[in-house]
Amino acid sequence: MLVRFFAHLKDVTGCDAAEISVAMPVDVDALWELLVRQHPALAGHRATARVARNWEYADTSTRFAEGDEVALIPPVSGG
């Protein structure tokens, strides 16, 4: 599974993407737990960052499969 980090989450993790291997199926909560273990600084961003699976926002019922592309997207504003 490829996980992409956007905006300041790149700085928090030190990378723009990470290839991870997880036992399937995994839900949003389990994915966050894994990511926080690998990148502890992400813990403070869980409440505000959105998770997307294959270019669509995920919710708590979303299940991830091997080969999915996951994105962590922090709040953004424009002007």
Describe the protein in words.
This protein has 79 residues and is an alpha+beta fold. It has a single domain, classed as Ubiquitin-like (UB roll). Helices cover 22% and strands 28% of the residues. The strands form two sheets. It has a five-stranded mixed sheet. A two-stranded antiparallel sheet has the order 3-6. A hairpin with a 2-residue loop joins strand 4 and strand 5. The protein is globular, with a radius of gyration of 12 Å. The protein starts with a strand and ends in a 6-residue tail after the last strand.
Provide a concise account of the structure shown:
The chain is α+β, with helices and mostly antiparallel strands. Helices cover 22% and strands 28% of the residues. The chain starts with a strand and ends in a 6-residue tail after the last strand.
- The helix/strand order is EHEEHEEEE
The total tally of domains equals 1
Going by helix content, strand content and strand pairing, the class is: alpha+beta
The CATH architecture designation is: Roll
Major beta sheet summary: 5 strands, mixed
Strand order of the largest sheet: 2-1-7-4-5
Taken as a percent bin, the fraction of beta residues is 25-35%
CATH superfamily (homologous) name: Beta-grasp domain
Ranges where pLDDT stays below 50 over 5 or more residues in a row are none
Shape: globular
